[in-house]
Amino acid sequence: MIRVLSVASECAPLVKTGGLADVVGALPHALEGQGIEMRTMLPGYPAVMARIEKVADILHEDDLFGGRVAVIHARAGGLDLLVVQADHLFARDGSIYLNAAGDDWSDNAERFAALSWMAARVACEGVGGWQPDILHCHDWQAGLVPVYLRRMDGRAKTILTIHNIAFQGLAPAAKLDRLRIPAEVFTPERVEYWGRISPLKAGLTMCDRLTTVSPTYALELMTPEFGMGLDGVMRDRAGVLSGILNGIDLDVWNPAADPPFHPAITPYSDPAGKAANKAALRRACGLPETDGPLACVVSRLSEQKGLDLLIEALPGYLAQGGQLALLGSGDRALQQQFHDLAQREDGVSVTIGYDEELSHRFMAGADAILVPSRFEPCGLTQLYGLRYGTIPVVALTGGLADTVITANDAALKAGVATGLQFAPATAAALSGALSRLLMLYGKPEIWQALQRNAMAHPVGWQTSAAEYAALYREMLTDA
After folding, report:
1. Interval 407-431 mean pLDDT
2. What digits encode the pLDDT tens for the residues 194-222?
3. 2-247+462-477 against 271-456: fold identical
4. What residue spans define the domains of the chain?
5. DSSP E strands: which ranges in 386-465?
6. Looking at the domain 271-456, which fold is it?
7. Going by C-beta distance under 8 Å and a sequence separation of 6 or more, which residues neighbour residue 112?
8. Model confidence over 346-380: pLDDT tens digits?
9. Domain 2-247+462-477: which topology?
């Protein structure tokens, strides 16, 4: 049995701001039966502390970045957890990353350095008779794990998964001593990035293996366009980089059995069953009945997600009878633009915020889901769309390129199409994809075949979990 400690800043169902949490929460269950025993380490935010069933305090430090820190062995959400309780770092209301003004917490470097430090201690000392063979680090928040492991002379193997290279956790060089980072690793080959400390770069250069969340994104990271200033590092480490697609939890996202979790949804296993959910979603969103398609967006509102392109591309789609229901929050200017659009257009509904039940209703009731991202490491909403027969319209990038088979003539004739892709990531190209969506929707036989293909497409964790398990085993056999 291989023991793996997964180290992350968020984990569903306990605390979530995006897809990272879904992946971290799903991976332990996905690896069951693969010979992998995984525990998950995450910060003791108020939302986490309120949910856990405490088992024991198993490790502590009296003064780490200004206060006492303890590691608690706990259980919650079906997960075996090691929770880093540090009230001076994590016991705060609001966002886990941002203050009330929407800015990064000024001590984020210390907060997640504490997470990494305690993970390294667990690896070196063991807790309660349990000691990991591998530390699986997620994004910059766990990027300092290999730095601390080296400082402690730890022997565990390390792997870093890049969920989004755009977030790097940069900190001033003046914090080097405070963060317990040895001066000898503050070099361009390791931790230093243009005179600053880069936890992400630390992980990229010092972990034994690297993964990212789709094969295409792995290739994109080695280019200046997508590498966010770290493309050279990624090219240097190409030999230890793997692209492994994310999956989704097929029990949580299941159109045939959603009612136990979301009673407003009528279950279905065939595309024809979406009709009742579409009517209910229109009523809930205040949209009129029409003969056109209802597209949805469930997303963080940002330029990365291409939502500014959608604003520009929507008029033609709406003029031809299409409708849009949006659920999301983020950039305030984009929020206002969508709000104003909903005020002007009867065919647009906008809900600012996030609601898990409503997101399920969107998947069950919409005809299509729009994901026009400029870059997208993997993406999960297009996978939810496939599962529910809600046709994805996606930009040709990252995991969107790897998970959707575009409905061109050849794919339609071969009976394998599952959605629509467009390139480049421009409003004109998106407008063209929306026009093709309208055309295909107007041909019921083709549209229903597209929906059936989508619902049959594999989107679970089975294949990807086997790839992770194989990678773990390979790491332990490396010299």
Report:
1. 97
2. 999 999 999 999 999 999 999 999 999 99
3. yes
4. 2-247+462-477, 271-456
5. 391-395, 420-422
6. Rossmann fold (3.40.50)
7. 9, 43, 140, 141, 142, 144, 169, 199
8. 999 999 998 889 999 999 999 999 999 999 999 99
9. Rossmann fold (3.40.50)
